[in-house]
Amino acid sequence: MKRTGVVLRRLVTSEGNASVLLFLRSSGPLWVRLPGASRGSVRFGGAAEPLVWGAYQLQRTRTDVYLREAEVKEDFWKLRSMPNACRQALHWCSLLSRNLLRGFPYDSLLPLLYWSTAALVGGAPPGVVSVRFLWRWLDDWGMAPELERCSLCGDPAGKVGLTDAGPVCPACGAETAADIAGFGGYVRSPSAQPPEELAGRGNDAEKIAEWMEHFFELNR
């Protein structure tokens, strides 16, 4: 079978064999074997590296799935020279590999990952892009928190406390943790490229993204 997708993880054994976790359209996450790949007997070049997008020809046996051919479509190679952006993209891959069921399709998350990674390559602040990535993932699963209003009184919110119930404004008794102003519009934007007003909000973004990950785990 032939599928398109992205490499989330790569594992190599002491014997020189490799396995990659592919996130595939129509098939979801799937572990695929590459016998002898690290010994050079079977070579796929960069097509088997994390964050590389490609078209993969797979062969399924009774017990395993093997990679027979691979064609790179997008390698996002520039990320390798952008340490913070690369770490962020790899962190998304780690979150996906931990939270998605094997063999279950999540086709709506593939373009989200692709365009979020493209925004990082374009120089967007990693923390800010991560807020959108996590919120849209949560929204896809029906668990996204409010990012424009206090979750208790409903008033428009700026500086808020980040609680298990959602953002809570100081008037409702919360201790301020971050300023969410502007993020509500960005996470709903069709473009992963953040507006200029959020460019210098890395500290707020990191706190919101960390809270989102907690919120994600809390509501799974």
UniProtKB/TrEMBL annotation:
The record, for Gene3D superfamilies, names: Recombination protein O, C-terminal domain
Q: Which protein is depicted?
A: Recombinational DNA repair protein (RecF pathway)
SUPFAM superfamilies, alphabetically? Answer: ArfGap/RecO-like zinc finger
Kindly list any coiled-coil regions of this protein. none
- Quote the InterPro entries the UniProt record gives: ARFGAP/RecO (IPR037278), RecO (IPR003717), RecO_C (IPR042242)
What biological-process GO terms show up in the record?
Answer: DNA recombination; double-strand break repair
The lineage's top-level taxon is: Bacteria
Entry GO terms, CC: bacterial nucleoid
Species this chain originates from: Jonquetella anthropi DSM 22815
Mind giving the lineage of the organism this protein is from? Bacteria, Thermotogati, Synergistota, Synergistia, Synergistales
